[in-house]
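> tool_call: predict_assembly(chains=two)
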Amino acid sequence: MTGRVTDPDRLSQAAKAAGAADLDALLVTPGPDLRWLTGYDALPLERLTALVVDASGAPFLVAPRLEVPAVMASPAGGLGIEVLGWEETEDPYSLIASRLPAVRRVGVADRMWAEQLMRFRAAMPGAEQSLAGAALRDLRVRKSPAEVDALRRAGQAIDRVHRRMAQFLQPGRTEREAGAEIARAILDEGHVRVDFVIVGSGPNGASPHHEVSDRVLEPGDPVVVDIGGTTAEGYCSDCTRMYCLGEPETDFRTYFLVLLEAQQAACAQAGPGVSAESVDAAARAVIAEAGYGGAFIHRTGHGIGVESHEDPYIVAGNETLLEPGMAFSIEPGIYQPGRHGARIEDIVVVTGDGIERLNVTDRDLVVLEG
Amino acid sequence: MTGRVTDPDRLSQAAKAAGAADLDALLVTPGPDLRWLTGYDALPLERLTALVVDASGAPFLVAPRLEVPAVMASPAGGLGIEVLGWEETEDPYSLIASRLPAVRRVGVADRMWAEQLMRFRAAMPGAEQSLAGAALRDLRVRKSPAEVDALRRAGQAIDRVHRRMAQFLQPGRTEREAGAEIARAILDEGHVRVDFVIVGSGPNGASPHHEVSDRVLEPGDPVVVDIGGTTAEGYCSDCTRMYCLGEPETDFRTYFLVLLEAQQAACAQAGPGVSAESVDAAARAVIAEAGYGGAFIHRTGHGIGVESHEDPYIVAGNETLLEPGMAFSIEPGIYQPGRHGARIEDIVVVTGDGIERLNVTDRDLVVLEG
């Protein structure tokens, strides 16, 4: 079992970044920021758990007393920070407020729940709230070599599932039945959590965020398989490949080849110093040129790390210049409502002179026995 | 496949409740409130999906264009409400604001993310935000007969997993290995999602929210197994039983019997017109009387429905009077750090004259071959 990839320096980096963003403290409730900062994957329950990153003092973690042993058993227990347990009838918001008497501006985790945000506001009426992401985004967006290694292993794990797809996609099975087996394979091949399983057969392939349904797979169906999970190291995988149960219709083959070229064009465009939106534009140009512009109804990609979707987003209007260590998906799609659809997706990481693709199985249409 | 349990009347009930709470509109992002109101179990991703419940107008749902087919394929597609798709480069917050020009007070879903809450605030600077839960809690806390049926079926599903526990808990296996098989059984026995799997063997049983570890199960170990999932109907299960791999030590048996009596005392106390805190007190009195008061370090229970943990909480200070249809756990525990721990948990629903237990497997210590 490989342990979670963490780095104790992240806490001091976050404190510095908070100060630079003119925030006196960050309040980090369970979610991707907490996982990234401490390695603690807290259950997202109603009792407050919060890491406090003080820009000018020591960080500390507040957790329900009954979860303190779970904190200490996690990588957070090895960080040497103070862990304060609160009892069922105590108010953890007041507890935190009492430790931060002088704060004027706090950053709340971007995914903090509204009910927590409002309780912090009531407990710290003098503190202006803004988003902690302003300070943390810049730290998380460029992956360290250890993080890239973890993403590479996640990519290999999901590639192993795609290589077994002939086992799962068979005419006569429902998408739901195939999806359940794929979910098991995601766990068996090296993930500890299944994040999503999309099996979009025939017309369901035209719904990009379709998950599974009771539709029975039929001979001739193109099938979009977009799957991802989280590894024990705490990093996410996400990869889409196209399958067909027997030979596809001619027009599907035609636009599939356009899509393959578009995905390649975006990968060729991506690299250090290039804008995120230009990568989107590269894919879009190929698809539009071939007459399918209106059928590519989503952005080209999203960043990935301890979250499935994070910065940088590969979308028109995002002028962010890509830098080495940034990791994201390149996944153009073409959708024909009522008929079928196609998407091809790799996770890539920016290197010193281009990108490395972390998913390497064949991107061509995989024709299975129909 | 049983479909999701929903009720189109919930939307009009919510509009009425919003008005009664002096809220002009509710903004409901993905999560339990959205599932309860519409049956739509949206992926919790960064693109905004929001149901708008207008206290004095028609409700509508805003979703990324690429997810509109998924909305329409869900029970939300059958509600006859307007569904507005937004394009990748549009601003859905402004779109919603433009449809609600006159609102003064909005209720945001209790679990809305901070980043969404702040973007709504920027888009609707004249609207004061408070929690939608103030309006929705009262609707969700008393389960309808159809909801109780769904919870009963969820209880039966998790009971089937507990009945198979001898297959999973065997000396020489790690908690993680046993947990992986239990997770599969949770799916096989009638859930579509595994919400949590706690296998607390030996000393890990003293950590109430321990999940699994690489600890190897040993002969003589008491094992806390606390498991739950969500069914296709959208309702949650949650049940804890105690196992021992061979005969336990005498002192474990002693406090286990105290715990069994405490759980029974709390069940006997629960019923219509009785306060939530009195149910907690009933369990606590038995445990304190036997000298284990300091070892029962959490509240007695939590409500359950479309969420694993929701109102009503069975905790000191909660004077809520129980009413027919309220469903919650009764799960006292006794924990001996460094040695072992025990918890017994049933989901119960308040009836006209008492409670019905929705988990019915034997609550006594189950001694497995050690």
